[in-house]
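User: what does the whole thing look like in 3D?
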Amino acid sequence: MPRLVLAPSFALAFVFIYGLIAWNGVLSFSASRILPNYEFVGWAQYATLFASERWSVALKNLAIFSSLFIGLGLGLGLLLAILLDQKIRVEGTLRTIYLYPMALSFIVTGTAWKWILNPGLGLEHLVQSWGWTSFSFDWLVNPDRAIYTVVIAGVWQSAGFVMALFLAGLRGIDDSIIKAAQIDGASLPRIYWRVIIPSLRPVFFSTLLVLAHISIKSFDLVMALTAGGPGFATDVPATFMYAMSFSRGQIGLGAASATVMLATVAAIVVPYLYSELRTRK
Amino acid sequence: MGALSIRNVRKSFGTVDILKGIDIEVEEGEFLILVGPSGCGKSTLLSMIAGLDVPSTGSIHIGERDVTHELPKDRDIAMVFQSYALYPNMNVAQNISFALEMRKVPKAERAAAVQRVATMLQIEHLLDRKPGQLSGGQRQRVAMGRALARNPKLFLFDEPLSNLDAKLRVEMRAEIKLLHQRTRTTTVYVTHDQVEAMTLGDRIAVMRDGVVQQFGTPDDIYTRPATRFVAEFIGSPAMNMLPVDAASVGAEALTVQGTSIALSPEQQAALRRQPAAGLVIGLRPERVQLGDRGVAGRLTLLEPTGPDTYAFVDTPLGGLVSRVAGTVTQRVGDVVNLNWDARDLHLFDTATEARIG
Amino acid sequence: MIRDRRSMTLWHRFAIWSVLLLFAAFFLLPLYVMVATSLKDMAEVRDGNLLSLPGSLNFAAWHKAWSQACTGTDCGGLQPFFWNSTLMVVPAVLISTALGAVNGYVFSKWKFAYSELMFGMMLFGAFMPLQVVLLPMSQVLGWFNLADSIWGLVIVHVLVGLATTTLFFRNYYVSLPDELVRAAMLDGAGFWRIFWRIVLPLSAPILVVTLIWQFTQIWNDFLFGVVFSAGDAKPITVGLNNMANTSSSVKEYNVDMAAAMIAALPTLAIYVLAGKHFVRGLTAGAVKG
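Assistant: Here's the predicted 3D structure for the full assembly of 927 residues, as structure tokens:
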């Protein structure tokens, strides 16, 4: 009976996930341009991909964005979690405030930050109106700096989530270990550094995984904040793939880029899933 | 044909053999105990009787029917789980009548069954409550009520008293026994507690590593344990075990650490019939008496339990425990004398672990 | 983490509070800016700065965002997109949640050979980058003539959401005692009876969490919206993005902000009302898998 019930949705999901991935793979080995064309061309699309300057920019941006987004996100989230763990009276309210950005669409976040960082009327104008007239903040339209605006918006959206995870982890730590450390004479920062933070390793890893996942997928945020611009200075693999597949009529190339994205994610996720499902039961 | 027949049941999970050939016949109305240490396979066996699991080979019969491959709901059995497994979202009355509901018993009959059972177990005042609002003992009763309402052919109990505190455990044990005397339903009861086994069972199957080491009445098990394991498992404090000097085996008198131990004529005859390469002598603590004669030793520890006192004595034979009624006048450090009747000795073959005499 | 206040000096408390409040401001400011800007007229926007208060509660920008703003060639405001999103979200959330519940039930209480493997394979769908199914999926939808319709979006969201909802329910049901199911089996209940009478009534916490999570994910989605829809079926995220990015003559930032607020309101409202469960949803989804 159970197998029967599971079969349809599993079949659907299976076909959806693996069947379409395979199909995408086929497309990436084909000569498709604006329409699918199943002429086999071997690795040609991949060659074009890695020779493409735009793709290199996209990869570089992904590296920059990911490392900063994950690093700052983890750092800020952990800091807020530790601070909130100090028996603050309005903890509930503060938690709500830190977390609400997660409820927003990346499009909303992008649109809002695009306005805030608007050169001329946004942050730059604000600080100048406070007296610091030489302040300039044109990162949004600066090809070298634009990617960092994506980092700012991304961290703003996700730090609260990291905080929630770490806070749950902190709360799960056995009190008696802390008490034992206090009796042994350790000071509070010491206790945090040597006892508490090390026991947060599992949370750390799963949060890292989720943040990595979000950063590789980041399409919405970039589209809303900079649309990949100026030019393609803030392009990321996700926006590259979209542009190639749906506006530049280069389906084969787009499929190749998608496959590369998949391979990157799989390299991280599959070992993790494997170890999780093995050790769980 | 008994009410329940377990015939050569084996169970393996991959390369691990959990049950290695179990044969048990249970009479109608009998209270069977399956007892043994963790991992002996008793819970697995119970699952198979219940139909929650299937034997790798062998068969199980309830009455005349071969039920080995039948679903639990077709076997007409009821089970009380260790954690009671009461449905949290239903109240007590609904919990009790759920099985009847599944069998499409009409509402009026269901209500009558609930009433009957509630009265029997004295839980009428709890019928509207949810399991979360009940104490451990109350939940236990509701779990039993759920089983009773079914009027099944067979009752199964899976360590139902393990989650209760000591005092409650003793009370519930008596209730279960009284209930059995009233209903006379064939019962299979799994426990790891040998006191429960001895007090509740009509017959006991002592299991170890997937094998039944001995199947008999509590008296059989206690006074004539078939193996060393059974002898040590049943009885508290455990039976004293004295390894016999290898050199003296086969000779006229056995010696332990050089001291000669007298045997009864029956034991000597048994030894001649079944010569053994190595022997261990077993002696129950309550058969060891503190007196003026016998083996001398130093008293190292006294454990007064109220009605009895356990005296630990260091002797040339090794450490011995004596169980004395009441209190002991001697104090720790004193020299005492231990004696016993030769007929109270048990002889075990060290190679087969079996009892010789 | 310290359980007594003795080791906390006043200076410590002050430092902690300042940092916390500083970041509270960091998180709240964009919201304030969005609301404030949406209540100004463009003159106020240009004359003032990000933080300046609006002169009055002027909802003109909101009105325009709702019914008159231009998103590309249409100038009917966000209204049609709002309804598209609603029509899409409701079935998608309900179906993916229902299927996820049954799947989770099977994977946790009715394990069979290879079920863990199947679960793992299904789980991969929750982690894979969606880019990899975009092209083939648009082909498939085209075949079924669902390419630019709301139902096409619903189907895609259900398929993608299935991995996550199954994960949530499976992890939750694993913590329900197996003996409950065994007891019910002994009582004579079958697969569906056990689900309806025992498992589902105990699912309230995870149901709430899953519904909120799915609603948020699907309402906020942009990628599928922009790839799989056109014309009349576009969801609100696409509408908003188009509106904010139109290179029309005069940028009306106040309208953009009002539009962003309108798009954000449903999920924000749910967050405010049922935030606790939202948090539990996030942590349940991430920490456990």
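In plain terms: Chain C touches chain B at residues 177, 179-180, 182-189, 193, 197-198, 201-202 (CB under 8 Å). The longest helix of chain C spans residues 253-287.
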